[in-house]
Amino acid sequence: MISLNQNYTGSVACASENARDMTRLTTVENVRTPIAEILDQSLNEIYLLNAQTLHFEYASRGARRNLGYSMDSLQKMTLLEVEREFDETSFRALIDPLMKGGKEILVFEATHLRADGTHYPVEVHLELSTRPEQVQFLVMAFDLTARRRAEAKLRANEARFRTMVNTIPQLAWIGETDGSRSWYNQRWYDYTGTTPEEMMGWGWQKVHDPQLLPEVIKRWSEATAAEQPLDMEIPLRGADGELRVFLTRAEPLRNEDGQVVQWFGTNTDVHDQRLREEAQRETEKRLQVVMEHMSEGLIISDFNRNLLRWNPAALRMHEIENAEEVFGSLHNFARIYELSTTEGNVVPIDQWPLTRILRGEHLHDLELRIRRLDKEWLRIFSYSGTVLRYENSKGLAFLTIKDITERKQAEEALRDAKVNLEYKVNERTAQLLAKSKELENFCYSVSHDLRAPLRGIAGYSRLLLENYYERLDEEGRSFLTNVRSATKHMTDLIEDLLSYSKLERRKLSSMVIRLPAFVSKVLAQFGDNLQNVRLTVSMDDFHVRADPDGLAIALRNLVDNAVKFSIHAPEPTIEIRAWTSDSNCILCVRDNGIGFDMRFYDKIFEIFQRLQRAEEYPGTGIGLAMVQKAMERMGGRVWAESQVGAGAVFYLQLPLSGLMPFEQLQEQAL
After folding, report:
1. Which residues pair with 363 in a beta bridge?
2. Is residue 265 within 8 Å of 173, Cβ to Cβ?
3. In contact, 19 and 140? CB cutoff 8 Å
4. Which part of the chain is the Histidine kinase domain (predicted)?
5. 513 shares its domain with 581
C-alpha cells in the first residue's frame, strides 16, 4: 500500500535543495563541488528522472549501491522498473498534483526492486525541477528497512508482554492495603465473566462462595494486617456459574523503605488436580479389585528383581498355596522353578522374561515351558510385559502370564490331524487323477466304439431306403426314416457330450480380445444361416480378457439358440450389444423368438434339460450347459431374462483388459 505524506521536515527540504545544487553542478557544469561529493556519497538514494520518459538521468552512489545497478544500466531504465507496484497510469495519477502545481513535494512509501531480485521498503520524496533546457524529477529515497524492523520488534515486544500478562495460567490481580483490588489480568475476566467496573474495589467478593466468604475475608484481613503472604484454597465461581477450587496466593509489594504498598495475587486452578487425586485414590481401590479378579497372572517387580506383588491368578497358575514361598528375589523363585523353550532347551535366568523386561525389552506372547523342581508338574505359559515408569527415574516391571497348556496340546493334536488330512488329500487326489484317466478312456470309447455301430446303423438304413424303397410299404419306409433320425440325434448327442467333456478338461488360454472383431469372426461362421435374420451388432471397441475358444463356444451357442427359437417369428431379429459396468464388459444376445417361462430358469443351464419338444425345435439340450461351463472356467458369468412369446436375452459378463479403446489409442498416437 502507498502512503502519502505532505508533512516533510526541513532537513528533507534542505537535502533536496542540496541535491538540486549537486545535480546542477555534476550534470550541467560538470564541476565536482564539496557538497556534490558529500551528497553523492550519501547512504540515501538520490535520483534525477526525465519527467517525460521517467528514465534515470542521474543516481547517487548510495542509490547505485542499494539497487545493484551501474549508472549505465540505470540510464537505460525507468523508475517503473524499480518500483514495480506502479504502472504508467497509476504513477501519472500519483504525480498529477505535483505536475499541476498543487503540491511542491510528494512523499509516499514504495518498494524498490534490486538487480538481484530482492526488494526493500523506501520513503520517497519527489519534487519537480524545472529548468529551461528540461523538466526533471528530483527523487530522494530513504531505506525504511531498519525502521520497519525496529517497529516490528517493538510490536513483538508489546505483544509478548500482553501475552505474558493475559495468558499466564493463573488469574492475577493487584490488591490495595485496605483489602480492595485495583487491577485484574484478562484471565480473571475470562473465567469469571465479569467486567472491570464490577470488580473494582471490593467487587471480588461477588465471585466467592457465600458460605466460605467470611473465612476468606478473615484470612485476607489477617494477612494484610500482618503484612504476611496469604496461601489458601478458595472456590471461585466461573462465568458458567460453577465453583472451581483455586490455590490463592498473595505476596506483599514493598517500596524502597520496606513499606507494603500493594499486594500481588494469583489464583491457580487446582480443581482438576484435586479431582484427579480423588480419582486416583478411587482408581487404586478399583485396581486392587481388578488384580484380585484377573484371569491372567500378574507379577510386579522392582528394578532390583524383587518380586513385590503376585495376584491370586498368578499364584494359582504356579500352584502356590503360600505366597511367602515366592515373595523375595527372582533367585529365590529360580530355586523352585525351571524355564525352557517349547523345544525343551533350558533357559538361563538372565534370559527369563522378567530379566529381559528389566533390561528394557517389551515382551509380547513369549511361550516357554515351566517345570517345578520339587514335584511332577509341567505347564506352558505365555509371557508379556514391559516397564512402566513414574516420577522420572522410578518404575516397575509388569509381567503378565497366560496358561496356554491346553491350547498348545490342542494345536499339537491339530497338527497331527493336518498331517493325516494332507495324506488323505494326496490319496484322494491320486484317486481323482485315476478317475480322470478313466473318464478320458470313456470319452475315447464313446468317440470311437459307440460311433462305429451308429455309422453302421445309419449306413444300412440309408441303403435300405435307397435300394429297397419300392419294396417297402409306407409304414416300413416311415420306420427306416425314424431309425435314421434317431441315429443322427444319437450321433449329435455323442458329439455334444464329447464337446462338453473336452470343455471341462481343456487348458484355458487367457488373452486380450478385441471384442468387435471377435464377434464378427464368430458370426461369419454361420454363413447363410443368418440370411433371413435381421441382425444388429452395436458395441464400442472394447478389449476383454477371456479364453478365445471358450468365448467362441459360448457366443456360437447363444446365436445358434437365437436363430433356432426365433425361426417362426414374422421377422426373425437378433441384436448383439455390449457396454461397460464397473470393470467388466456386458455382452448380450437378444432375440424375438418364443422365449421361456422364468419359473423354469434354474433348468435351462442344466445338461440335457429342454423346455420345448425336440420335434419342434431340434437339439441335444447341452448347448446352454456348455455356455455356463465355458463362462465359469474363464471367470465370467451368464444369466438370462425372458417372457413367453416375447423373446429372450442372454448376458455374458467378461472382465475388461484395462487397455484403451482402439480409437483412443489412435488419438494418443497422433
Report:
1. 385
2. yes
3. yes
4. 445-658
5. yes
Cα separation, 151 vs 171, whole angstroms:
31
Q: Indicate if 46 and 93 belong to the same structural domain.
A: yes
Nearest C-alpha neighbor of 458 from the set 494, 485, 476: 485
- Count of alpha carbons within 13 Å of 563, Cβ hemisphere only? 18
Same-domain status, 647 and 519? yes
- Cα separation of 108 and 98, whole Å? 13
- DSSP code for 661: P
Q: Which strands form 105-113's sheet, in the order they lie side by side?
A: 56-59, 45-50, 135-143, 119-130, 105-113
Please report, for residues 73, 125, 330, 403, 415, the alpha-carbon distance to residue 115 in angstroms, rounded to integers and kept in the order given.
Answer: 10, 22, 77, 79, 80
Domain that holds residue 241: 168-275
Last residue of a domain, one of 236, 256, 275: 275
662 class by beta-carbon count within 10 Å (0-12 exposed, 13-18 middle, 19+ buried):
middle
Exposed e or buried b per residue across 98-107, where buried means at least 16 C-beta atoms within 10 angstroms of its C-beta: beeeebebbb
How many angstroms separate the CA atoms of 595 and 561, rounded? 11
**What is the pLDDT at residue 5?**
35
Q: Are 454 and 490 in contact (CB under 8 A)?
A: yes
Whether residues 86 and 199 share a domain: the answer is: no
Is 142 inside a domain boundary? yes
DSSP secondary structure string for all residues of 273-342: HHHHHHHHHHHHHHHHHHHHH-SSEEEEE-TT-EEEEE-HHHHHHTT-S-GGGT-EEHHHHHTTEEEE-T
> Do 553 and 630 contact (CB within 8 A), yes or no?
yes
Q: Strand 171-175's sheet: what is its strand order?
A: 181-184, 171-175, 260-269, 243-254, 230-237
Amino acid letter, residue 568: H
Q: Residue 304: which pLDDT band, with cuts at 50, 70 and 90?
A: confident
pLDDT at residue 23, as a whole number:
45
Number of domains in the chain: 3
What would the pLDDT profile of 84-141 be if each residue is shown by its tens digit? Answer: 999 999 999 999 999 888 899 999 999 999 999 999 999 999 999 877 777 889 999 9
Among 275, 308, 325, the domain-final residue is 275
Assigned domain for 594 exists: yes
Considering only 26-30, 86-90, 567-571, which range has the smallest mean pLDDT? 26-30
User: Long-range contacts: 489-495, Cβ < 8 Å, 24+?
Assistant: 489/614, 489/618, 489/620, 490/454, 491/451, 491/454, 491/458, 492/620, 493/620, 493/622, 494/446, 494/447, 494/450, 494/451, 494/454
Say yes or no to pLDDT of 651 above 90: yes
Is the pLDDT at 20 greater than 70, yes or no? no
Span 6-29, average pLDDT: 42
pLDDT tens by residue, 436-477: 565 555 655 655 566 667 676 777 677 777 787 777 788 877
Q: Is residue 350 part of a domain?
A: no
pLDDT digits (tens, 9 = 90+) for 477-501: 777 777 766 666 566 556 655 665 6
Rounded Cα distance, 611 and 670, in Å: 54
129 and 237 share a domain? no
pLDDT band at 71 (very low <50, low <70, confident <90, very high): very high
pLDDT > 60? residue 321: yes
Contacts of 170 (CB under 8 A, 6+ apart): 187, 266, 267, 268, 269
Q: Which DSSP symbol is given to 604?
A: T
| 310/332 Cα distance (integer angstroms) | 14
C-alpha cell at 529: 444361416
Q: For position 505, what pLDDT does the model report?
A: 59
